[in-house]
UniProtKB/TrEMBL annotation:
PANTHER family on file: 3-PHENYLPROPIONIC ACID TRANSPORTER-RELATED, BLL5896 PROTEIN
Protein location: Cell inner membrane
InterPro entries xrefs: HcaT-like, MFS_assoc_dom, MFS_dom, MFS_trans_sf
Main location group: membrane
Organism (species): Marinobacter salinisoli
Transmembrane segments: 12-29, 35-58, 70-87, 93-112, 132-151, 157-175, 195-213, 233-253, 265-283, 289-312, 324-343, 355-375
Pfam name, any one: MFS_1_like
UniProt name for this protein: MFS transporter
Topological type in the membrane: Multi-pass membrane protein
Major facilitator superfamily (MFS) profile domain span: 199-385
Keywords: Cell inner membrane, Cell membrane, Membrane, Transmembrane, Transmembrane helix, Transport
Length: 385
């Protein structure tokens, strides 16, 4: 099996789990009788553990060089802790299960991003083609699980996810083992100096606000659609449409990098994200407009993530790449995503799902201002991973 397929395989299964979890887990929790605020709290755990877990695992990966072993460790123990869902532990028990499961599960992706980029070596432009298999896995899982849930109760969701956990475990062991490369005693550059650079601060603030705005989407988009009369298969197809748009974007992203600057791409993507949240908030019943809004996922996630991965690699360099990726995951997807999910719970509990998406649009408006004022080209780094 070629290195391309070995790298793509884990992306496929990792994001297949997201495809089975994100669109339907809030519906599962609603079916279990939890309130909107409880649903928001439980969904926030998926992001909350990213605040700590990536930093812990990223540090271990940088210090030992044993990232593949750590990925396998996270895959195995994440699966074992998820099994606690079948004990029907109640709200607080499920909260602990989700915290434990996601602590190990969230170790996988930041480590694997470093593994992928280093494995590709000088062919880093192929990252998008490797990463798009994650999108394929997401789409496949969303469609298949949504179709099955048209015939079985939503309470069957945990059982439907078990084969995906098996796939993650197997694919983690298909990645060739690394030779341990311990971090030098005196790495080039200071992590503190890199993070304190104004351009880097702006980069993290922008991504933090971006993920705060996604809180309503990842927590209540499915419930929002269900309230407007969409069935589970339709909900799954709409989620899939967003990821299909993301795949198309990944395939042409190299052309955008040649034509536009990083700053232009980021500001343009943020403006499209603002439009997306406003459309979802107000015109959910108009299917063509909702389809357009989902196609804008290519901007709100695809373009901004592709830019951010390259930015992290360029700024943090070889010696701090793992910790830089961990900071990106923890401060943005973790803190930003958790805060956004939790805040959206209050907005839905006290108002409506539409109000939560208007809150997302307001957050993105702030992100546009911050980015316009402060985002510049990253400081040069003499050695990159």
């Amino acid at each position: 099996m070629s290195i391309y397929w070995r790298l793509s395989n884990l992306y496929f299964w990792f994001f297949a789990l997201l495809g089975g979890l994100l669109p339907y887990w809030s519906l599962y929790l609603e079916g279990e009788g939890y309130s909107y605020l409880q649903i928001a709290t439980l969904m926030a755990t998926i992001q909350f553990t990213k605040i700590i877990a990536p930093s812990v695992w990223g540090y271990l990966g940088d210090r030992t060089g044993q990232r593949v072993r750590l990925v396998r460790f996270g895959a195995i123990f994440g699966s074992l802790f998820f099994a606690g869902v079948f004990l029907e532990p109640g709200f607080y028990g499920l909260l602990l299960v989700m915290l434990a499961f996601t602590f190990f599960w969230n170790a996988i992706l930041p480590l694997y991003e470093v593994i992928t980029l280093r494995s590709l070596g000088k062919q880093k432009e192929k990252y998008g083609k490797v990463r798009l298999w994650g999108s394929v896995g997401f789409i496949g899982a969303v469609g298949l699980v949504g179709a099955v849930l048209e015939f079985v109760p939503i309470q069957s969701l945990p059982l439907l996810l078990l084969p995906v956990f098996v796939g993650i475990g197997i694919s983690a062991f298909l990645v060739p083992s690394e030779r341990g490369e311990r971090k030098p005693a005196a790495p080039e550059g200071s992590l503190r100096e890199i993070v304190a650079h104004p351009a880097v601060i702006t980069f993290f603030v922008m991504n933090f606000l971006l993920q705060v705005s996604h809180g309503a989407y990842y927590t209540f988009f499915s419930i929002h659609l269900e309230q407007h009369g969409y069935g589970k298969l339709s909900i799954g197809l709409l989620w899939s449409l967003g990821v299909i748009a993301e795949i198309v974007l990944f395939l042409v992203m190299h052309r955008l990098f040649r034509r536009f600057s990083v700053r232009q791409i980021v500001i343009g993507a943020l403006m499209l994200t603002l439009i997306r949240w406003a459309l979802i908030a107000e015109v959910t019943d108009m299917v063509p407009v909702l389809i357009l809004a989902q196609c804008l996922h290519a901007a709100s996630y695809g373009a901004l993530h592709a830019v951010s991965v390259g930015y992290i690699q360029q700024v943090f360099g070889k010696d701090h790449h793992g910790q830089g990726q961990a900071l990106y995951s923890g401060l943005t997807f973790g803190a930003g995503g958790a805060l956004g999910a939790w805040m959206s719970g209050f907005l839905v509990e006290g108002g409506s799902t539409s109000l939560a998406f208007w809150g997302s649009a307001a957050v993105i408006a702030v992100a546009v201002v911050v980015t316009w004022r402060g985002l510049r080209l990253p400081p040069s780094k003499s050695e990159t991973a």
